[in-house]
Amino acid sequence: MKRRKFIQSAALTGLGLTVGTSLIACADDEKSVEKAVAVANSDVKPTIPMVIATWNVPNATQKAWDELQAGKSALDAVEQGVMIEEADVNNQSVGKGGLPDRDGNVTLDACIMNKEGNYGAVVCIENIKHPISVARKVMEDTPHVLLAGNGAKQFAIERGFKPENLLTEASKKAWEEWKVKSEYKPIINIENHDTIGMLAIDKNGDISGACTTSGLAYKMQGRVGDSAIIGSGLFIDNEVGGATATGMGEEVLKTVGSFLIVELMRQGKSPQEACEEAVKRVIKKSPNYKDFQVGYIAVNKKGETGAYCIHEWFNYTTYQNNENKNHKADFYNKTK
Fold it and tell me: Is the model's pLDDT at 311 over the cut of 90?
């Protein structure tokens, strides 16, 4: 069954109050509105198609780029792109080979968004190597947007996904070594709490995004971070742009970071300015920001990109203008 489309309608009421309030809002936001108009009317030509992803993932961006060059949609590109990392057993923060929770279970979270703003996600799913594809099935084949745990696994099996053991020998060994002391301490920029988030724009100028992770290593059973939560780990608005996050999910959730970035771009900020503001919101709310990492990437409709993080060494990969390149992101904490 394809997702039902619900048409919402709203009557215009309280016209006088609405107009009055709008005039005040327009006066207060005049500068941001003027800036947004200037951006929309700028001479910058769109640089599309393009792909951008968190961390150094050239194989993933290559796959996404190949999909775009074959005429596929941005949605197809991001799904196929992040699947490369989900299948890579050497990547211990995504998919098969991901580091387990404290009980030794590999649980995965993923979400996907398309150009219409539709969203599908799974959280705490076990024994399914490609949660991003299950998330797409949730989006396209059910009336829901998020399935969890055993329900998500059952749905995946019903849709033809084959269950398999995702705990590799390397990840099992790392978990057994951790159990000796059982100390939980996230390490900045170390892949015990990272993810791959990917955004793409296709030849039609349409944007989609995907985000997938095995979450915090040795987390409490049932823990869910930001990656699969709309507006936090990922947000797409095809009129404006998209954003995705990596790092300490709890901190991203508190500020709904990806949605914030897209809304800041709607107000006229560049992707870079929006990412910087989102990181500063995290810092403002978290006095212990020196103990964790949060990083964002973003793209607007013109294919302009931005990236920013709290600490040094967060990096990201772009495939644009026929170049597959890794970049070091600018960062906030420059004190020694």
Answer: yes
CB neighbour list of residue 14: distance below 8 Å, 6 or more residues apart: none
Quick check: is 195 catalytic?
A: yes
Structure token digits, residue 123: 């959280």
Q: How confident is the model at residue 44 (pLDDT cuts 50, 70, 90)?
A: low
Q: Which residue has the higher pLDDT, 34 or 213?
A: 213
Cβ(86)–Cβ(130) below 8 Å: yes
**CA-closest candidate to residue 61, choices 83, 46, 94, 90:** 83
DSSP 216: S
Q: Show the tokens assigned to 93.
A: 């923060």
Task: Say whether pLDDT at 186 is over 70.
Answer: no
Q: H or E element: which one contains 170?
A: helix 169-179
Question: Is the Cβ–Cβ distance between 47 and 300 less than 8 Å?
Answer: no
Beta strands in 119-259 (DSSP E): 119-126, 146-148, 196-201, 207-213, 234-237, 241-247
Q: Could you give the CA distance from residue 64 to residue 59 in angstroms, rounded to a whole number?
A: 9
User: What is the pLDDT, as a whole number, of residue 194?
Assistant: 65
The alpha-carbon radius of gyration of the chain (Å, integer) is 20
DSSP reduced 3-state for 53: strand
pTM of the model: 0.86
Distance CA(199)–CA(243), nearest Å, equals 7
Contact between 230 and 242 under an 8 Å Cβ cutoff? The reply is no
Angle CA 186–88–72, to nearest 5: 115
| Active-site residue (options: 54, 61, 195, 318) | 195
Sign for the CA dihedral angle at 226, 235, 270, 298 comes to positive
Residue-wise pLDDT tens digits, 57-101: 999 999 999 999 999 999 999 999 999 999 999 999 999 999 999
3 state SS of 236: strand
